């Protein structure tokens, strides 16, 4: 963004670029590492199932229930946890979350039966509650809105990277660690992948900084610029959007965004929890045979491609300043490709379709979070973002449980994956409906009134103008003028 376009002195613009780059170098790689470990610990049950189900006597339905119970504990503690982070600071609260989740994740190595597995998955959800929305909230403390979308995409790249590198890692530990410490391979995997979270909890306590004004690693000039910039943006957003905490927890537009996120996450967790089983099933369907390590490497491919797609699609969204279709189109792609995968006649063709699913899901995720963060700040952001993430992550319960249940009653994974496609397509349609509704400003005076879809569309417009690096109005997805940032 030029100094002329922004109305700020050229020196101030140069200082801003230097500060944002310095903050990104300090925070983004570490945040990616934390989320890599976090996502691995919640989804490694997908690989454990390849050996664990026989040992514990789990049916597909029981495995789906165990996978999904994580999100029950997660649901009830997500909003309180994020409000606590806003109050006590990210450094203390993220460190606490990591310590407790690491202990529980490692403790899953010692479950004696299905009932204990269910209980530990609920506890893991409670322990992890608040981590992801806390990280999204933390980004709003450090990065101006016009810079935030691309750094959110970099942070979220930890999801496909965790699956890409975590899949062969988990498979290798299970295959080559079998018998270590006198434990089965899947138990060794849970133990070894839980320990890093405990260690990183102590690093987090000393490494993270709660707010820009406390950043000793910035110079006085840099710290002053960033503090002023974030306070200016917060005041501007609060003036334009009247969103107290109660409204961010009850307004229909938040529920609409929650459903869109539900659809995207439904596909994400169906893929995470059942892709190893799909690849393992090639032996029966196509008369192929893969070792655990080979299965892990095959599973990694769609996520590696998805990582590249996430970066490119997020950059394209920033460059064009468009948000709604950048969520709807990849979500629709994933919706169409995931059920089709099981009707193809070769392992290669199946993996091409699955890779398209991963591209769609990874492309939609980072752009989606530009919508609520455009009009939520402070405590309302803590509550609203947590609520969207909490309700959306109910898909983490529904996707594995319903997919497993439908597999049991039909004897095939096709019905479950068709349901995934239907849910994702519904999410794509809803986000398009949000985008073509009137802009929100006229409906923002009431506390609960107004058109839910319209407000979200306006959020997309504001975020789009910001991501494009402009302070002047741009065109909304519907072709209507958006409000000035």
Structural account:
With 485 residues, the chain is mainly alpha-helical. The chain has a single domain (3-467), classed as MFS general substrate transporter like domains (Growth Hormone, Chain: A, Up-down Bundle). Helix content is 77%, strand content 0%. It is built from 21 helices and no strands. The protein has helices at 3-6, 10-43, 45-56, 60-88, 90-107, 114-128, 131-142, 145-156, 158-176, 185-207, 220-240, 245-250, 252-280, 282-285, 292-320, 324-340, 347-368, 378-392, 395-410, 414-435, 452-467. Helix 3 runs antiparallel to helix 10. Mean pLDDT is 78; it is low at 1-7 and 436-485.
Question: Which features would summarize this protein structure in a list?
Answer:
disordered N terminus; disordered C terminus; mainly alpha; globular; 21 helices; single chain; 485 residues
Furnish the topology, listing elements before pairings.
Blueprint lengths: L2 H4 L3 H34 L1 H12 L3 H29 L1 H18 L6 H15 L2 H12 L2 H12 L1 H19 L8 H23 L12 H21 L4 H6 L1 H29 L1 H4 L6 H29 L3 H17 L6 H22 L9 H15 L2 H16 L3 H22 L16 H16 L18
Helix pairs in contact: 2-5, 2-7, 2-8, 2-9, 2-10, 2-11, 3-10, 3-13, 4-5, 4-6, 4-7, 4-18, 4-19, 5-6, 5-7, 5-10, 7-18, 8-15, 8-21, 9-10, 9-15, 13-15, 13-17, 13-18, 13-19, 13-20, 13-21, 15-17, 16-17, 16-20, 19-20, 20-21
């Amino acid at each position: 963004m030029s100094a002329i376009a922004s109305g700020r002195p050229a020196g101030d613009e140069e200082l801003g670029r230097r500060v944002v780059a310095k903050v990104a170098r300090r925070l983004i790689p570490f945040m990616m590492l934390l989320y890599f470990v976090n996502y691995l610990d919640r989804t490694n049950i997908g690989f454990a199932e390849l050996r664990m189900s026989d040992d514990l006597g789990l049916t597909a339905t029981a495995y789906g229930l165990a996978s999904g119970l994580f999100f029950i504990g997660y649901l009830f503690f997500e909003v309180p946890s994020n409000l606590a982070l806003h109050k006590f600071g990210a450094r203390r609260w993220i460190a606490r979350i990591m310590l407790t989740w690491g202990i529980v994740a490692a403790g899953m190595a010692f479950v004696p039966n299905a009932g204990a597995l269910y209980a530990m998955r609920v506890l893991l959800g409670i322990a992890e509650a608040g981590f992801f929305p806390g990280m999204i909230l933390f980004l709003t403390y450090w990065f101006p809105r016009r810079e935030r979308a691309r750094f959110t995409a970099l942070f979220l790249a930890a999801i496909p990277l965790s699956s890409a590198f975590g899949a062969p890692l988990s498979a290798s530990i299970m295959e080559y660690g079998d018998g270590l410490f006198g434990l089965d391979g899947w138990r060794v995997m849970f133990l070894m992948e839980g320990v890093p979270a405990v260690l990183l909890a102590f690093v987090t306590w000393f490494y993270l900084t709660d707010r820009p004004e406390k950043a000793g690693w910035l110079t006085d000039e840099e710290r002053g610029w960033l503090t002023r910039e974030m306070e200016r943006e917060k005041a501007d957003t609060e003036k334009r959007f009247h969103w107290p905490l109660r409204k961010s927890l009850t307004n229909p537009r938040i529920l609409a965004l929650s459903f869109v996120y539900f659809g995207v996450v439904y596909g994400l967790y169906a893929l995470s929890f059942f892709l190893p089983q799909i690849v393992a099933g090639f032996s029966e369907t196509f008369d192929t045979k893969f070792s655990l390590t080979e299965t892990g490497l095959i599973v990694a491919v769609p996520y590696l491609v998805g990582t590249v797609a996430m970066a490119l699609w997020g950059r394209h969204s920033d460059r064009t300043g468009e948000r709604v279709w950048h969520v709807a189109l990849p979500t629709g792609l994933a919706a169409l490709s995931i059920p089709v995968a099981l009707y193809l006649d070769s392992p290669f063709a199946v993996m091409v379709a699955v890779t398209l699913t991963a591209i769609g899901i990874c492309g939609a995720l980072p752009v989606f979070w530009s919508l609520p963060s455009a009009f939520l700040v402070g405590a309302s952001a803590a509550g609203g973002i947590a609520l969207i993430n909490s309700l959306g992550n109910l898909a983490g319960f529904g996707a594995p449980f319903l997919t497993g249940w439908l597999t049991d009653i039909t004897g095939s994974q096709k019905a479950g994956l068709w349901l995934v496609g239907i849910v994702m397509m519904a999410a794509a349609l809803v986000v398009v409906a949000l985008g073509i509704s009137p802009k929100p400003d006229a409906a923002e005076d009431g506390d609960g009134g107004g058109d839910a879809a319209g407000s979200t569309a306006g959020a997309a417009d504001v975020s789009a103008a910001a991501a494009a690096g402009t302070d002047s109005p741009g065109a909304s997805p519907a072709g209507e003028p958006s409000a000035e940032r």
